[in-house]
Structures are given as structure tokens and as C-alpha cells.
Amino acid sequence: MFIGRTFVLISSCGLLIAATFSCVKVGSKTPISFQDRNISFNYEPVKLAEAISVKVTADNSSGSGIIIQKTANIYTIVTNRHVIDRGDVYYIHTVDSSIHKGKIDTISEQDDLAILKFTSDRIYPVAKINPAPLKLYNSLFAAGFPYNSDRLEVTLGKLLLQTKKPLKQGYQLGYSNNIQKGMSGGAIFNNLGEVVGVNGRSANPILPDYQYQDLSYPTKQLQQKMTQLSWGIPISKAMELINNL
User: Is residue 35 part of a domain?
Assistant: First the structure.
């Protein structure tokens, strides 16, 4: 299967690794390796990111999403709740440049997650999921569509913080990857191309708010560290939401 989006791959230190690939063959067995400040990866996850990532548009705003499941001709998309909060009509932009009308399936009351569905007779790849707990300093890819862009951006980084209990809205994964506005709802991949989390919060917010779901607070020292990281939700939370439908 060939896909035709343009995407860019950027390391956590801002180094441009690869850009404007207009034709990538999904499923190729040829690995391309790269090392950047102790970040080592196989190129296969980047191709998978290209295949299963979607852009979600709602009225005049946009975010990202992940094709996470398929039943007959119905596809299930995971995104952030704050992405779909911005509109009433939703469209899913897939890898072949098609646009599908999306329908809200469910919205998490506790976590920053929402499930959309769309119907299509076309065949789209589905994400490989790994809900197992991550290890600190694992290399990670973060994918999504920056605001007002049709270009998929994939950034490199590492898991630097994993809270024992979730922050408000379910955030637990703190990583060094750069996340821009619009990349919310996009996938976090491990080095095997498996989806392990969902992007949601970028580093250095204007109004930091780091409170646990049980209403307690991290230490001030830990909060300072948290502000320097991007934050994601473990994919296990999304799977729980889907399985409870």
C-alpha cells in the first residue's frame, strides 16, 4: 500500500531528520536506523505513524487522531476530548486524502479522551496497540498534525517521567518530544511501532495545572519538572473506554 501525505521527522533537540516524503511504502521490511543523543530507532514506526494517523477537524479548529479499530466497514478513532469540544460537526482526514464525516461514539467523563467513528468501504491500516507499562528513558515517537497544517509531524524523544497516579484528565506520561498545537489526539509510539499513548499537552504551558485526579498535588520541585515535558495518556485508558462501550 502506498500513501501520499507529506510528513516531517524531528528529534527532541530540534534537528530535522527527514522531510517531505511524498510516497512511503507501508509494511516494507527494509529498516532505516538513526541515532540521536542516545535515541535509537527503526524507521518502521514512522511509516506506521503515517498510515494510522488522521486529522480531525471540527468547525474552525483541528486536532489529530488514531485509527485504533475496525469492525466491518466502521473505523474507530481515538482523540482527545478537548479536540472534539471545539465543534459540532467532525471530519476525519485519512492517509489517502479522503475526508469522512465523523460521529461521536463516546466521551470520557474523567480522562481527556473521546471516541469517534466513521464509515468507509476503503481499507485503512489499524494501529498496533501495546498497553503494557513503559520504562523510563524508552525512546518514543509522537505524531500529529500541527494546527493549520496537512503535514504529519513525527517528533523523537524519550519518556522522562511516569506518574504512579494519573494527573487530572488521565495524563501520566511525561516525555521530551516536542508537541505543537494541533497534535493533540495523535499517537505516541514505541520503537516497535506500537501505540503506547495519546498526545495531549505540550510543554511550558501558559497556565500550568498539575494536579492529580485525587485532588492532591505533586511537590513544587516535581511540578517544575512537569512543566518542561509534553504529556500523554496511556493507551490502556483509551482501550478501557472502547471496551466499556
Answer: no
What CA dihedral angle connects 167, 57, 147 and 125, to 10 degrees?
80
CA Rg, the chain, in Å? 17
38-61 burial, b at 16+ Cβ within 10 Å, e below that, comes to ebebebbbbbbbbbbbbbbbbeeb
Its pTM stands at 0.85
Percent of the chain scored above 90 by pLDDT? 70
The residue range of the domain holding 88 is 52-127
**Is 217 contained in some domain?**
no
**pLDDT beyond 70 at 10:** no
Domain count, the chain: 1
